[in-house]
Fold each of these.
Amino acid sequence: MGDFLRMNGLTGLFSIVVELLSILLVWMLIREVKWETFFHFPNSRKAQVLKLLLTVALGHLFAQFILQYWNYTVMLKTFVE
């Protein structure tokens, strides 16, 4: 039972780290977008909130892709054994 709880905790920690790193990566990429083409005032509060929400949403989607891919590889490993 102890090994299961430890593994479950490590999986949770790994998921949090992947989620935060994915959001950070997307934030770095979104900073490079020329927002003047989308907004009249790209530094307004509304534009900043939209960029923040877009960053979190895209980062979450990317993290879910990575975590599901990781889960599938673990399942395949148990299938082969």
Amino acid sequence: MNTPVEQLPDDLASALALLAEERARRVAAEAEAATAKAEAASAKALVSHSEALIARLKLEIEKVRRDLYGSRSERKARLLEQMELQLEELEADAGEDELDAEIAASASTVRAFERKRPSRKPFPEHLPRERVVIAAPASCPCCGSA
């Protein structure tokens, strides 16, 4: 909050209330940032997993084509080997990203909602105070038990 010095409160109670409000905003912003970071890590893990799945399916398609139509040349065999290596790398990256997402999700903590306390003024000193105590009945009016 960019409050000019002239607008800052002079009394201690108002200054403490302003400080508490600023702290609450900061904590909320930090929690929101941690949540966003965890969501980003989860999205990255999902993308890595999807890329690995796509690569695996492409490899399976090429293998089925090779089995169905026969091998065309040595170049295709090298391409299949290269695709298998890329698939292994993508699966390893996907595993790392999932681990990062789990760490980010466990690191983000969401604070419980804290209700603001009402800022009532105390009961005026000049008004009289009476304590009224109502005695409980000795027996129940409905059933008559003690």
Amino acid sequence: MDRINWFKELYKVYDNISQHTKPYEWTSDRLGLQITIHPSVFSPAYFTDSEWYAEKTQSLASGKSVLEVGSGTGLVIVHLGRNGASSVAATDINPAAVANTRHNFDKYRLAGKVVEGDIYSGLSESDQYDIIFWNHPFNLEYKPDEVLLRAAFDHNFDGLSTYISESSKHLTSKGRLLLGSANYAHPEVIEKIADKHGYGIEVLFSEVLPLSFQDDSVDKLELKLYEFRRKQ
């Protein structure tokens, strides 16, 4: 799929998400988890990637403290908190997403910091984690004004650069930096950014899935779970 058609499909799904004006319930059969989804928040009810990242990070997070950047509804971090993570925390730049994650933390009686901020900006210097994960925006071409679309666009991957370069401040000594990504997310650019900051990339998991649950006819995504490793 070329970039023009990719954006058409992407905006089509976001248009469907934006039709919701009230909170609604959604159940992930794959995870056995029901969450509340608020308006103006990236919705895992439409895209296939969040469930997959939640499933793949579960084995890595067992017994570990985990921070999710860009938590959205909280699906991933709530799943980890209910399935073996020793502690969980989340940040998001979207205030509606922060409220949504807090709601789902409360729903499942999960204790943990949930803060509004751009990447790590809402955290204190003492906040450190065994695992940091971000299902990052796959697109670098635009800088949208609409807060919902900021879940899809990170202009020039400036946020990703910060995510990598400042990660050491919030990782424990043996902490792991993970990234949810895909073949349409400019992997060659991600590799260059990582290299610039002294990191190599390893693909831990990959799988081909549809972009959305609603339309299986479009070209598939190859989802990837990366780990950034400091070069020696």
